[in-house]
Design a protein that fits this description.
- There is one protein chain.
- The protein is an alpha/beta fold.
- The protein has a single domain, classed as 3-Layer(aba) Sandwich (Rossmann fold).
- It has a ten-stranded mixed sheet with strand order 3-2-1-4-5-10-9-6-7-8, with helices on both faces.
- It is elongated.
Length: 297
């Protein structure tokens, strides 16, 4: 693996905050504000509601339903503008399918970061919860910051980033996510912990655990540009065990403020999109004690 190339610092200029007005979605607001103020970015507060006129509604009620929807939209616009008072904000209220409308909004407004909150549990909950949130971070071209239910309580909830935990399995997709992790560490003067988890050795393995550990540590170093090592507070960790459980345990013990992962585009097999072992990204996003940044390659 070649040493990571020097990349320009990450500049989030257009941040999309996706909300369904649930408490879970609201948990992401402090992070949106923190990032928007730090990068002097514009916030796009985005909400999608079901179509008012559809086969399930009676024609006789359409006029009333449309007026009610307009009133709700106006109420939501006011709430979002008040929430992000002091931050340049545009409110986008659409109707239809969340994922398709989100893709349109990202392309139209040159969004370079999506932020959302989720219950983190499997199955369908409200609009941005459960499997919908997972579909978003697996199919969205720009990075996605997901704030799960366990992010509250351990940290001060002000969106501070003091330590970033970046986990990788050294797939070819590691370089782009690593570049984001390094850039964020520089921006926020945060400690960067580079982690690789090695599955437990099997009987008959020809390479010793010590050799694998040392080789993995060297590969982690190569993901960080040489000049970044001069200013970045770096740690390199190589652990043995289950990838998802190990990432979650380390993030909790260290009280990390952000976990960064690389994910692949969905290829048709549910739960198999991440470049880390199957379902690792889903488990980490669902159960992490801090927000998780997923970067698709």
């Amino acid at each position: 693996m070649k040493t990571a190339a020097v990349l320009a610092p990450t500049r989030f200029q257009h941040i999309l905050f996706a909300t369904d007005f649930s408490l879970a979605a609201a948990s992401a607001i402090p992070y949106v504000k923190k990032l928007a103020k730090h990068y002097e970015a514009e916030v796009f507060a985005f909400h999608v509601r079901p179509a008012v006129v559809n086969p399930m509604t009676r024609p006789a009620t359409w006029a009333v339903d449309v007026e009610f929807a307009k009133a709700q939209d106006a109420k939501h616009r006011r709430e979002l503008l008040e929430t992000f008072s002091g931050v340049p904000t545009k409110v986008l209220v659409e109707e239809g399918d969340i994922v398709s409308e989100l893709k349109k909004a990202i392309e139209k407004n040159n969004i370079d970061l999506v932020v959302l909150g989720t219950h983190g549990r499997s199955g369908l909950g409200k609009l941005l919860l459960g499997s919908i949130a997972e579909e978003i971070f697996r199919t969205t071209a720009c990075p996605v910051l997901t704030v799960g239910p366990h992010s509250e309580g351990i940290h001060d909830s002000k969106g501070e980033i003091r330590e970033i935990l970046f986990a990788t399995d050294f797939a070819s997709e590691s370089k782009a996510p690593a570049a984001y992790a390094v850039s964020l560490a520089q921006e926020f003067q945060a400690r960067l912990v580079m982690l690789h988890v090695i599955p437990e050795p099997k009987a008959g393995d020809l390479v010793s655990a010590h050799d694998v550990t040392e080789a993995s540590r060297e590969l982690l170093r190569k993901l960080v540009p040489a000049e970044a090592q001069a200013w970045c507070k770096l740690e390199y960790l190589v652990q043995h065990g289950n990838p998802a459980e190990t990432i979650l345990d380390i993030a909790q013990v260290r009280e990390s403020d952000l976990v960064a992962l690389g994910v692949k585009e969905e290829t048709g097999v549910p739960g198999a999109s991440t470049h880390l072992p199957i379902a690792t990204a889903h488990k980490v996003v669902s159960r992490a004690v801090c927000p998780v940044l997923t970067v698709r390659s």
